[in-house]
Amino acid sequence: MKDSNTTIDQLKEQVKKYCEERDWDQYHNLKDLAIGVITEASELLEHFRFKSEKEIQQMLNDPKKRGEISEEMADTLYFIVRMAQKYDIDLSDAFEKKMEKNRTKYPVDKAKGSNKKYNEL
Amino acid sequence: MKDSNTTIDQLKEQVKKYCEERDWDQYHNLKDLAIGVITEASELLEHFRFKSEKEIQQMLNDPKKRGEISEEMADTLYFIVRMAQKYDIDLSDAFEKKMEKNRTKYPVDKAKGSNKKYNEL
Amino acid sequence: MKDSNTTIDQLKEQVKKYCEERDWDQYHNLKDLAIGVITEASELLEHFRFKSEKEIQQMLNDPKKRGEISEEMADTLYFIVRMAQKYDIDLSDAFEKKMEKNRTKYPVDKAKGSNKKYNEL
Amino acid sequence: MKDSNTTIDQLKEQVKKYCEERDWDQYHNLKDLAIGVITEASELLEHFRFKSEKEIQQMLNDPKKRGEISEEMADTLYFIVRMAQKYDIDLSDAFEKKMEKNRTKYPVDKAKGSNKKYNEL
């Protein structure tokens, strides 16, 4: 699978099959899946704890480290896709709507080159 | 956009355009983007804090609440996609590889119906 | 050390000595210490992922599991205390002020028996 | 209250009284309190998202920002203390034991001046 030709529905289908085969619907309520998202996001973040930008750049150039980071990203994505699949949420639709909102919250003329939050712009 | 026909690359393109227009490459290093993922994952989780399963079910049936939850999922996805886009990581490929690993870590005959971690199976 | 006679300053002193001996001041900036807090909070939370209230109650009755949970709490506390020690923040003072604010945000007559957020009371 | 003369038990007593007056024992199970810890840790971390070390230093010198950061630290501490108080865990004892473990995991001669994890030392 490649990002160029993989749809969100294809990710959902993989996740659905995987969880159904293991009979995990009973454990996958919304609260625990959200815990899944954040605990995996934390494992991703932990790679960078106390590391300088230079060291992080070196990680990215190291295939093993790069693979580990990609894996944590995949784990986080897995739980988001599972939430969306189980609770019938269209991620692409939600994404598009949120990006539209973001464009209004961060108008180019005010947000360009700035790291301020929208309420401080 | 719908999950049925939206590819990951299409999400990446939206994010790339949005961030380029705002000249945000300078702030979007890996550590801060990973902070982005976890802080949005936390806003998603916060919706369920101290809520019972019944109350969470009611949230899902309330279009306004459902929209808010979808929005937090989109925010989390945004930062994962941004990381992948900026640092040239193929999410679908990482996802497929991780699912393959998961199938080995959680073999159906041992994991079926169980909520144990792989190292406790 | 026991909670009955251990002051926050005594925790700060232990942390200060420990980090000075290891020459870690150079890595312990505020952003990375805040990453420390959340990554340890995540390890604490992960113990309860997909677990029912009954299972969590059993964990508490199991001395080994109880010890592991206490350890994750200690790890989270360590980073909060380190932040406060390094950046000269009086935690007890901040705590007292915040509790005073909380009492106003959640007045007894409105908040009693409710799991709503203050802005929904 | 000041860190110099405030014991953990005094924090516990404040939290206990506050929660009992609001009849919140029914909501404060271990899973949701751990969610409390991580969501507050996230609000703390969010202050530093996309900020440079120089900007964070400026925040610390700004009494208003410094107060906000202290408040998020107090919120995180509140949930740890509440967990410990409700589930009868001695934080100082857990802290002392964990610091002892840490001293072994990160021996001075190996860890001095290093930002590596114990398993990489």
Give a short synopsis of this structure.
4 copies of one chain form a homotetramer. Chain A has 6 helices and no strands.
Q: What is the strand content of chain A?
A: under 5%
| Count of distinct strands of chain A | 0
Q: What class would the helix/strand composition of chain A place it in? A: mainly alpha
- Major sheet details of chain A: none
Q: In one word, what is the shape of chain A?
A: globular
Oligomer: homotetramer
Order of helices and strands of chain A: HHHHHH
Query: Number of helix segments of chain A?
Result: 6
User: How far apart are the first and last residues' alpha carbons of chain A, in Å?
Assistant: 40 Å
- Averaging pLDDT over every residue of chain A, what do you get? 97
List the uncertain runs of chain A: none
